[in-house]
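Note to self: user wants both folds in one dump. Writing first protein now.
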Amino acid sequence: MKRLIRSDDGLTLTELMVALFLLVVVSAVFLPSLISGMRATTQISNVARSNDDARLTLQRIDREIRAAEQICNPTPGNASDSLRFITRAYTSVSTATGTQDITYQINGTDLDKSRDNGSTWEPVVGGVVNATVVDDQYNAQVGRALGTVGVPLFTTQGLSVSGSTSTSVVALPSYGKVITVRLWVDESPTDNISPIMLTTELSGRNIWTPNGPGCSP
């Protein structure tokens, strides 16, 4: 036993070459699978994070729309990539300080928010691909040709007012009060994961005069 412990014998060159060969073979077999699995995990994680951000954004817009007094854009019965509304501003639960002019708008692949009608913008969520995705369902509803333009983000339900007076216009109960949102999100356009659509309908319970005087620029 002592002689074995004190022995200076090691691996022969042949044994070392065989071990290295086996290591290369095992690496060649399993390394691509490991890299592919790590890449897929990263993509799924990015998609999940992007979807969570988009859902939180819709919840945020929903809360603000509930307190809105007027929806300025899009006009009733029309669609747009911009949503502008006038809402109450509060410093506390019971004290109102006035109103805020809030705008959500697609800028490139980002959905940005402005609290002062476009003077300053803050990013809300990225990876928005409404400009490049065509929603067949929406096109079928509005009778639009497929593949022409991207899907608008916001659509206001109701009928448009034509002429100088609106006394003869019969509007839907949702006239100017309900916003349909179709938000297409794609965290990475280069991956193999298709864009995901998040859709919801938001209602302004305090909106009685859509596109009124408060919507002036």
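First done. Writing the second protein, which came from a different request thread.
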Amino acid sequence: MTTWFTSDIHFGHRNIITHCSRPYTTVEEMNEALIFNWLRVVKPEDIIFILGDFSFEKHPENIFRRLSGTKVLIRGNHDHEQTIKLPWDAVHDYFEFKIDSDVICMSHFPMLSWHWMHRNSYMFHGHCHGTLEYPNSLVNSRIFDVGVDNIVKVTGEYGPISWNQARLHLRKREFTKVDHHG
């Protein structure tokens, strides 16, 4: 079983193509590419955390049923009733998930300080579409935007990132504490 993360997919959102300079000409092309990228890596036995803003589709169940894996939604600001009522395996506003000796704290919105931040934990978030730049004094190797518009900079594709890929990427960054906890 592999653990995957993604956010800010925005299925069916025509304007996101322009807003985030996604390389698609139509929303249908974008949807199919995002589905393809998901299915290429996420297997039925895997778990995938979607950290918000899943779909703008009027009928998101048509896309949802095509996607593999155990799907856990961490609600985002654009996840409305038609998305929330999909048959998710779980839905949370904030969630902590332990992998080996690490804890992944997940929220749609980024946090500069979170539970266990100095003890093998990470803050995974979405919402920012890869545009959040931390001032040098606040750079923290354990905060990570898992939205597809940021993940493309890491993996080269608009799609999910595995825990192993994320961990390798994060270990290249220097840890800087942002509060008094040591």
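Dump finished. Worth passing along: The radius of gyration is 16 Å.
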